[in-house]
């Protein structure tokens, strides 16, 4: 019974911290306010999480790893070419459905942490992925129709659009529908590279 209560408290701390980081970002967040929200002392909170950065990492690291895997490995899953659109939409909407708030914290509230370059790293992962598709397209056409430098702005534009949807579509169904339309728009233009 005591173990269950400890896990409940740990989860309460994470939920309160998530709301704090969402509202104030890492720099403006207060461990004291988090502890007050949960109804524990700051000292007791530190028994669960040894510091503000460890608490922050507990919230954002899972979403960063998950999004990085979605971007890097979307074409590693067995599928037929016609289903790639549905797979990409499903992966991106599942991520938002489960981890919207931590993702917002990662992209907008990481300043002052070791994650402050997370958006850049995600852009890089997406750019590498796009560059692979451009190279495959060039090989298929037998000429260099697109240079590797094209991958970066395409990747940044796609990711920033995705982030904007997450920021402005809090209703999960509305968010999912918007992501579907957004990916469809990109997919129609890029499907030759797939």
Automatic annotation (TrEMBL):
Coiled-coil residue spans: none
Leader sequence residues: none
Residue ranges annotated for the HTH tetR-type domain, each copy included: 7-67
Pfam families (UniProt xref): TetR_N (PF00440)
Any GO molecular function: transcription cis-regulatory region binding
PROSITE patterns, alphabetized: HTH_TETR_2
Sorted UniProt keywords: DNA-binding
Domain of life: Bacteria
InterPro entries: Homeodomain-like_sf, HTH-type_TetR-like_transc_reg, HTH_TetR
Record SUPFAM superfamilies: Homeodomain-like
Matches recorded under Gene3D superfamilies: Tetracycline Repressor, domain 2
DNA-binding region: 30-49
Protein name listed in UniProt: TetR/AcrR family transcriptional regulator
